[in-house]
Amino acid sequence: MKSNLKVGIALSGGGVRGISHLGVLKGLNEAGIFPTKVSGTSAGAIAGAMYCNGYQPEEVLKIIVETNYFKFMRPAISLTGFLKMNSVGELFKIYLKHNHFSHLKIPLTVAATDIKKGKVVYFSEGELINPILASSCIPGMFDPIVIGDKFFVDGGVLNNLPVEPLEGICDFVIGINCNHLPEESNIRNMKSLIERSVIMSMNYNVYSRKSKCDFFIEAPGLGKYGVFDIKKAPELFRAGYEQALQYIDENPAILELATKKE
User: Fold this and answer.
1) 113: Cβ contacts below 8 Å, ≥ 6 apart
2) What secondary structure letter does DSSP report for 100?
């Protein structure tokens, strides 16, 4: 075996664009690179939880494509969101039956935002599904998730690339961002203006942590995909996979993290 390096992988949030994380993981795994710890925000928390539970990247893609995720969402009778995420938890219970961090095959940390205190909270033990829901609870769209006596929304509000839980624990950190924004010559309407502004804010959040990563993988142009554009799932997976292969080819030093099987 090669050296027992501890490799951490941080997965950004980004809605359906997070499917590209699965493609990157597939590419890294094929090169013999496997994480000893994973952290994630929002879509990264969902992809991370499924992967850390033992599902192969292609398996998770198949689940996403075959599951009507949005049918599990329910209208919220509330001033704080249009939809409730709680019923989505029923969907996660199908694939994460144990509903506990301790049962994951790879340690996972999930980032969420305590909306009242205005601070990031990292979950890595105890119940699993509610923290995942909290981490991916887009403010204004979904009712906040209540855990204990605290109200949580999307972790990406304050930390869209949670490398901090990996620092001091892992020898190397790989950051993966799924929101690369292409240049835009013409903002067509208010919707595209708002979406672009949100992604710019998310990326500033991510790029401020880029220097904390030993390796940083970002498939180009993913910011052009809508947050809920689930029909593009195979395309997003492929984009992540191809970028991982290209990154490894251009940055062969990352292969030092590979575990060689005898």
Assistant:
1) 119, 120, 121, 152, 153, 154, 155, 157, 158, 159
2) B
Instruction: Give the pLDDT score at 261.
Output: 47
Burial letters 185-214, b for 16+ CB under 10 A, else e: eeeeeeeeeebbeebeebbebbeebeeebe
Residue ranges of alpha helices (H) inside the chain are 19-30, 43-52, 57-66, 88-95, 129-135, 190-207, 233-250
pLDDT tens-place string over residues 132-189: 999 998 887 788 999 999 999 999 999 999 999 999 999 999 999 999 987 776 777 8
Under 8 Å between Cβ of 34 and 5: no
Instruction: Please state the pTM of the whole predicted model.
Output: 0.91
Task: Tokens for 30, please give them.
Answer: 């094929």
Calpha distance 79→126 (Å, rounded)? 30
Number of neighbours of residue 233 by Cβ within 10 angstroms: 18
Residue holding tokens 């992809």?
Answer: 47
Note the pLDDT tens digit of each residue in 26-81. 999 999 999 999 999 999 999 999 999 999 999 999 998 887 554 544 444 444 44
Query: Tokens 């892992």 sit at which residue?
Result: 170
| Chain centroid offset of residue 90 CA | 20
In a 13 Å sphere around the CA of 147, the CA atoms on its Cβ side amount to 21
C-alpha 14/C-alpha 32 separation (Å) is 26
